[in-house]
Amino acid sequence: xxxxxxxxxxxxxxxxxxxxxxxxxxxxxxxxxxxxxxxxxxxxxxxxxxxxxxxxxxxxxxxxxxxxxxxxxxxxxxxxxxxxxxxxxxxxxxxxxxxxxxxxxxxxxxxxxxxxxxxxxxxxxxxxxxxxxxxxxxxxxxxxxxxxxxxxxxxxxxxxxxxxxxxxxxxxxxxxxxxxxxxxxxxxxxxxxxxxxxxxxxxxxxxxxxxxxxxxxxxxxxxxxxxxxxxxxxxxxxxxxxxxxxxxxxxxxxxxxxxxxxxxxxxxxxxxxxxxxxxxxxxxxxxxxxxxxxxxxxxxxxxxxxxxxxxxxxxxxxxxxxxxxxxxxxxxxxxxxxxxxxxxxxxxxxxxxxxxxxxxxxxxxxxxxxxxxxxxxxxxxxxxxxxxxxxxxxxxxxxxxxxxxxxxxx
Length: 410
Fold this sequence. Notes:
Layout: H1 3-19, E1 31-32, E2 37-39, H2 57-69, H3 78-91, E3 99-101, H4 103-109, E4 116-119, E5 122-126, E6 132-137, H5 142-146, E7 153-157, E8 160-161, H6 167-174, E9 181-187, E10 194-200, E11 202-205, E12 209-211, E13 219-224, H7 231-244, E14 249-253, H8 262-272, E15 277-283, E16 288-292, E17 306-310, H9 317-327, E18 331-335, E19 343-349, E20 355-364, E21 380-381, H10 393-405
Parallel strand pairs: 1-5, 2-19, 13-14, 14-17, 17-18, 18-21
Antiparallel strand pairs: 3-20, 4-11, 5-6, 6-7, 7-8, 7-9, 9-10, 12-13, 15-16, 15-20, 19-20
């Protein structure tokens, strides 16, 4: 094999290694609950270092021996070997949120957060056992119509076992063009029974703010399903509307909300808080970054009473919002302990057209409470035996709490 090819191969390996140490702190669907990724391109081209860790010497030695002595060295597949090396490096981190994204999927991965894509309409994540789990099917989505439930574990996609697949790879098997059909073999959380479900993919438009109560109710039940670029503005307009119609309190429903854009949760938090910080971010160098409440070019709502309803599938940005409002005592948090996804993700492009997603920091509430793998504990627990309950027992309990402890005490 030519020295030029060898140099190219080694450069790609070095590039992928170097990217792991060159992140700066900032922000999947089929849509992943692990959505808090910002794609960051390096300001300058990354150069292979002249020196490298001695622990990596066996990598170069193995490649040199293969190119010199392997019987079929002319058939060595540089691309395949490079991808396998990158995957194994990331796998060694034992972090389900750090993954390799192949070139054929990398551009697709960056379309989620603009509010539309083609697929089944569900947010997914990978649990600590390496299983792909449904965090939430979106309201009115093909997934929800077909019977997909929060907590379902996806075992196979179109007959292909997901054993050993990364979250990104699984997501891109589930996705596909509008009008095509995907078959998911799932294990339901409550029954532990498996079911083969066929779902016709659609173009999914993602609205994040929905009014669940009647127009003139004095308690406005507003469901926030995700954090998209316009979520703050949409929520502000919705609250203005219900206040004008006589609402005296807000039930902000974050159940099954998988998270979203970091900038969006700062906007939403700033709707209800006048000043201070929304969260702290601490990276691997123990550097702290503060995300402050900010001014908005639309109405804030600083006085109306708020109760925030969460459950076991309220994740990521949902937990940031609930934690901030709880710490400032701006809202009472009710429901169940949240998911516990409080890490900051970053995506970096690689020279082969692919990319890597990786965890670069962890989030803390204003009072310094860690979110990752801990979650947000409700001030008032309202347990539910049914993860699909978005209108019944918990909602009634939350509204009764507002009536008895807020409205009747005015």
